[in-house]
Amino acid sequence: MKEKTRVELSIIILSYNTKEVLRRCLHSLLAVKNGAKFQIIVVDNGSNDSTIKMLKGEFAKEIKLIEHKQNLGFAKGNNSARKKYLGEYVLFLNSDTLVRENTIKKTLKYLQNNSKVGALTCKLVLPNGNLDKDARRSFPTPKVALSHFSGLDKIFPKSKIFAQYWYGFVPPNKVHEIDVIQGAYFLTRKKILDQVGWFDEDYFLDGEDIDLCWKIKSQGWKIVYYPKVSAIHLKGVSKGKKKEFKNSFQERKKVVTEGVRSMKVFYRKRLWNKYPVLFNFLIIGGIKVIKLLRIFKLTVKYIFTCRE
Question: What is the pTM of this model?
């Protein structure tokens, strides 16, 4: 029996109807493969846009493909790769990212050279050149969430009191420890994933990266934002939010409702026991209000878009 070739890094990309951006993402990875040896695992969650045909045709020799018949969600989809032959390090990468030269090489080297760091991300840059603020976040405790959803962090973007959610008080080009890194570029150690149980599958879309960071930090590991290298994040394409990749109203509504549901799941799992019961019900009520407001906003936007 032929012995499997060992790999140092496994890159897991979840795919769901993002054929064109996925193609660009894979080409960006292949362009830097000489500088960093890795394997690419693409998990497809039941795409119906000929993604599978493209992968089996153009990238058959470059990737390992896992096919699902339906959309299992972000957590369960990524977790399906856990039984595959993986390297010592694992990078969860969104299909709507473009990796720049040396990004993988330098982030991996930083993780290898810092034994107390359990996970890290690079600087994520939007197509317009601005920082993707979600690249570094604090845990959404009631205090942090209130400042964020009330808009106080936008009014006082560099305040240590009000701008904690996006670390607005820390320069965006400074390496520093944070609470949460985004699932768009999430580099960690396989032994840590096995230790904490990978992504929690109670989350379908959104929140699973926050929860995983909570579990990693709970085990005493540090999480780091490393902006010395970067990747482009098209932001929202993988969720069907961009106009050119727009999903149906029902699919967009599911994205909105699942995003809000993840807030409720996280609060009940990680924060419920830290506060009085009455306060907890007020928080859950606030989450329900956010859900209604987001559905209303989406509906109005959809109606006016259809009129154009």
Answer: 0.91
